[in-house]
Write a structure and sequence with these properties.
about 200 residues; alpha+beta; Alpha-Beta Plaits; 5 helices; about 10% strand; globular
Length: about 200
């Protein structure tokens, strides 16, 4: 029985498609980045990663991005959360845990009634709309050829199905994420507790 999902998606420039630790991408769209290797979604990554070479390689690749990697400020993170809240009000989505970090987002959600990929697109869209409304979108003044601001979230997402026995540990992991990074705990008004039947196998 699938009780819910743990979902992670990054801010632009945070998790590259050919990241040495693996990614959710199947292709590398930039030739400059492709020189650092092919997409790592389908690669069998084995063994330990050398942290020093890993960090150096990723930092060098990020220098080739067309725009500066996004790091959400506190005000921007709040706007992203308000965008999620607006989506929850419209859709009835159950969000059981949320951590909006400077460069990525963690969510634990109940069954969304649609493909997770589509849900993530809608959540990103709602967050983007709120950032624009408040005039604090990271690329507010950097527009594409159609006059739209460049996307502040990375393409794609990471997701894992949660059995009922997994839900509480996933919630704790997400709630502890800011604390483990030296940031304050987060409390969002759109986050609710899972119903009992989501915790029973």
């Amino acid at each position: 029985m699938i009780a819910g999902y743990h979902i992670i998606f990054g801010a632009y420039g945070h998790w590259l498609p050919n990241d040495p630790a693996g990614s959710w991408s199947e292709f590398v769209g930039s030739w400059e980045l492709f020189r650092y290797g092919r997409a790592t979604k389908k690669l069998a990554l084995t063994g330990k990663v050398d942290r020093s070479s890993f960090d150096a390689e990723r930092a060098a690749a990020k220098q080739l991005l067309r725009r500066k990697p996004v790091e959400f400020t506190g005000l921007q993170a709040r706007a992203v959360g308000q965008g999620f809240a607006s989506y929850v009000e419209r859709s009835g989505l159950l969000i059981w845990a949320c951590a909006i970090m400077p460069d990525h987002v963690h969510l634990v959600v109940g069954p969304p009634g649609m493909k997770v990929e589509q849900l993530v697109i809608q959540l990103k869209g709602s967050a983007t709309q709120r950032l624009l409304e408040e005039g604090i979108h990271p690329f507010q003044h950097q527009r594409d050829k159609h006059g739209r601001p460049h996307k502040c979230f990375a393409r794609g997402e990471w997701k894992v199905y949660l059995d009922p026995d997994d839900v509480e540990s996933a919630i704790k992991y997400v709630e502890d994420n800011p604390i483990n990074e030296g940031l304050p705990a987060q409390r969002w008004r759109f986050v609710t507790r899972p119903p009992r039947d989501a915790l029973r196998g």
